[in-house]
Amino acid sequence: MKRKKLLSLLLTAAMTVSMMAGCGSAGTASGTSESGSSAGTAAGSTSGASAKGEVKNFTAFFATPGTEINDDNEIQSLIAQKTGVKVKETWLTGQTAQEAVGTLIAGGEYPDFIDGGDGTQQLYQAGALVALDDYIDKYPNIKNYFTAEEWDKLRQDDGHIYWIPEFSNINGEEKTCTHNDEAFWIQTRVLKWANYPKIKTMDQYFDLLEKYNAANPTMEDGTKNIPYTILCDDWRYFCLENAPQFLDGYPNDGSVIVNADDPKNPKIVDYNTTATAKKYFQKLNEEYKKGIVDSESFTQTYDEYIAKLSTGRVLGMIDQWWDFAYNVNDALKQAGLDKQGCDYVPLPITIDESVQNRWHCSGGAFNNGAGLSITTSCKDVDGALQFINDLLDQDNHNLRFWGVEGKDYEVDKDGMFYRTPEERTNCSDTAYKASHLCTYSYFPQYNGTSKDGKNAMKPDGQASEFYDGLQQDVKDTFDAYGVKTYVEMIGTCEAPGPWYPMWSFSGSLTTATPGGTAWTKMGECKHQYLPKVVMADNFEDGWNEYMKAYNACNPQDFLSESQTELEKRVADAAKYSN
Description:
The chain is an alpha/beta fold and about 575 residues long. It folds into three domains: about 55-165 and about 370-405 and about 440-445, 3-Layer(aba) Sandwich (D-Maltodextrin-Binding Protein, domain 2); about 180-360, D-Maltodextrin-Binding Protein, domain 2, CATH 3.40.190.10; about 505-575, no CATH class. The strands form six sheets. Strands 1, 2, 3, 4 and 13 form a five-stranded mixed β-sheet that branches. It has a four-stranded mixed β-sheet with strand order 7-10-6-11. Strand 14 and strand 15 (about 415-420) form a beta hairpin. Helix 1 crosses helix 3, helix 12 packs parallel to helix 23 and helix 23 (about 515-535) packs across helix 25 (about 555-575). The longest helix is centred in the C-terminal third of the chain and has 23 residues, at about 555-575.
């Protein structure tokens, strides 16, 4: 274990050196223009471009896996012409966020922009981030990106704001067609074979997988189907452990259940120890013994999991859409597997039919635990913030997410955006995306409605474009159920309260508090014992062993601190409502 961690840290160090040495254009220092000037753009101006057409080069590191684009990417160059800035983005590879961030802190040198993910608190405590309070008012797009209440939610214990959540803004009317979150997913061929039944419970879901696999054990080419697989690699073990909250009809607070039967006095509940949790893991144990659960579930890496889904062999799984779809869907399409019904749709699964599902909450989730920061290594903080401000201009936002008019999308006589079949194919092609498209995907962005009041901010929110662009097997499935979107397929609910989501709190915890220490131990315990529970010859013995180890982690310390945070969020919201 120690050798593996050391190797990971060495790989991280190598990545960091490469990132710091290779930023910008040849011979260009971080945060400087190609002419060598390091002077910042005047705060509040509408564009970072200079009269001489100079382009400043910044660096960014995001502590999450991602795909780098080509250095000569066409839309990135167009954005640079409009803003005067180009950012070299680097992504997490081969290590955890905390390891990568720890290596940066040890070296004392940082990229200009950073989203530290689970390592954000490490960066804050190390003094690596620039406080943004004195800057925000200078940049109208940034200032108006959140309300005063939301900005206050981002203040740390020293009273300052250090990061901007990138994905927590819905402009105007919400336009959501894709369920970007967690669900029980199933291939369309399974539902078609069963004549599109209503599947609402965990037992019904696994019963259908069993029956389909018994009747159809292989794909058309003779490849053996995998009825159900589980991703359990590193931090992604949420695909295994957090289903009980959803099965009991609660939304994704991520780390706990919030019982709001008394809205003025909500209570924290541990979803790991509920009766539903035990039923869920007992079901997985039963399905594992039947051969329905993939025997490689607890040893496969994330890359192996994605490769497995991309073959079309896997009939179902639990996952977040963003964790698999952007890689898997294109692979299935390019291989023609959509024609065999290998695309995935979500189902509104709960523990029994009397429970209303809340897998999808409208209004989004405000994540105050992490976001885009500017580091103390940045030599041009104003220039960096001006770039963020400019990226939020509607024209630049359209470039990022819709592309170039006439090449990536069209505009009809009513001003509505749409794509031709050829444009949709291009925008799903890996090589085209790398050479042409540039979303700056971990910079602040809008969901919802464009400033024109008609179009969606992103193509996946444009209802007509979204449906027209679906693969035929998904269209047929939606038509059979009388829906047009993934959200309609699974259903929706309103965000439950001002505390939502609580995972933004648990994600900020460190071992500096008893609750943070317990939270770390709880995660380690679940990661170690839950696979054993699923594979146990005797479920009761396996469950009891797990519960003994879990209780030794002092989960009450974590639950107590969560309750304190819950009450604080409710009280803070009451201040603004008054």
